[in-house]
Give the backbone structure.
Amino acid sequence: MADARLVLTARECRVQIIRMLTHAGSGHPGGSLSVIDILTALYFGRLRHDPRYPDWPDRDRVVLSKGHAVPALYTVMAKAGYFPESQLITLRKLGSPLQGHPDRTMLPGIEAATGSLGQGLSISLGLALGLRLRRSPARVYCILGDGEIQEGQVWEAAMSAPKLGRPMHGLDNLTVILDYNKIQLDNFVAKILDLEPVLAKWQAFGWTVIEIDGHDFDQIAKALDQAEATVGPVIVVAHTVKGKGVSFMENDPEWHGKAPKPAEAIRAIREILGVGEAAWDGYLAKNPPTRALVDELSALEKT
Amino acid sequence: MPAKASRAAFGEALLELGAKDDRIVTVDADLSKSTMTARFAKTYPDRAFNLGIAESNMVGIGAGLALAGRIPFVCSFACFVVGRFETIRISVAYTNANVKIVGTHAGIAIGEDGYSQMGLEDIACIRALPNLPVIQPADELETRQAVAWAVEHEGPLYLRLTRQNLEPVCPPDYRFRPGRWLVLRPGNEVTLIGSGGTVFNCLEAAKLLEADSISAEVVNAASIKPLDEEGLLGSAGKTGHVVTAEDHAITGGLGGAVAEALAEALPTPLKRLGVQGFGESGDPKSLYAKHGLDPAGIAASVRKFLNR
Ligand SMILES: Cc1ncc(C[n+]2csc(CCOP(=O)(O)OP(=O)(O)O)c2C)c(N)n1
Ligand SMILES: [Mg+2]
């Protein structure tokens, strides 16, 4: 049975993603909503980390290679205690450590600058190897976008990973997760440059491949357990839905890179919370924090 | 003419030129909606190639297409396409393949996306290659002419375009020519050189300076390489002070090119305005103010430079 706490946390994070993008007026909702369940599973129960001690040498590392989905990462980091949740709405504002794409030097807890697609897997290989060389128990989790793996550098990294460091320091500490939401920027992945057969490709490169539903917490947990018990690098191919949780964003390339308007955001939040249109006013009357959030977003309409 | 982004003017110009010349093809890497080649792709689907998020492959395929007699426009954000510098260096430049490299989303003016999406070192990189002209138009009219020239020009080149709208600055009878700069406003105490997105701000700054009785000559340097040596030396000789303003890293761009030319031919006091350090997220207006590239910032730098 799915961990109810994770489901609840991911739902709260989805609401915050919508909120912060609406405040920012720009950003990437689709890929943030597709990856948030995976990030929630990592940050709440899986990672060995200490938000009060972000440079703890033996912490597990998360490299969000698809850096444009960083709003999702910020929401789990805030919830885990890396910084106050109130800071979320400074996303993309001048001077904020919450840059439009991850900035390692401005925000403790970010492991690498990403945002130029295709670079995170190589950095993750280096991190995993370096940790193995100093006998750290830490693990490395690298999250890739499906469009992103069209980059040649990804396949250079993929080709090198199974043998890197062997026999003494093989990358048994590396888990890659592919956010396979089937959409990139211009269109559906299959229309631009199809990845299929994607499982066979990684297998042919010497990886252990696990295929899951990336919105099912039981399957995510099982896959991550299996990855930890596996010798050599593992890729979890997570089938996801771009824009997951918001009907009008789901499976629509148009919602790759634009922020919702306040009215759209409020509708999105209602859908994420699972409240029907007719029941919404009643719900708000009984839930003052949501009421306050709706008022906050409505006020943006006027400015 | 209303304000228009140079990437939008590029997309329209290419669509028109494509009707007359079927050698023109576009090569993209999953940013065709942003580089504005999407309409060309819709109109000429058999001449538009979207290769996915794979810029090295895009540049290389562009080079091959050029060697086979096509005229490829290879397009992405400036940071990503010029990020494949070594591929450009060998497959395009050294091969001398007739590839038109188009880098959009130049500078900090893109705002909120932040440093990773900002083309900030592209001029410096491409300028170092011996055979690529570097062209940065300042408005719609100039963009259309630069694109037409790019098609006619035999050989590789780099076209740097903006995401943001640009106010018209060139007169209706203007003709773009490589190695020729346009004096938009005559003056005699300081030469103020802008390029692309900063040209309009230089003009506005000149108005502010006029109110302080400072006479600034404003020059539009669309052709950053080759630069207009005659025009530069003539204006610098007249005013005795040169200020460059660009939405690019302070190192190696327009200011660098002007410094090199002046130092060797006519040493003249020079102030370079540009982006210091990494770019960052923020609204474009505030970012320009922070980096002193808005009219008030440029005017303030000029006053300080002239001790006025
Ligand atoms: C090297 C590089 N090229 C282009 C871009 C522009 N870009 C940002 S997101 C994106 C599409 C990403 O698609 P995908 O990896 O599938 O991400 P997701 O669907 O999870 O949002 C593109 C092309 C970039 N950030 N980096
Ligand atoms: Mg995708």
Observations:
- The interface with chain B takes residues 24-27, 67, 92-96, 99-101, 103, 113-118, 147-148, 150-152, 184-186, 192-193 of chain A (CB under 8 Å).
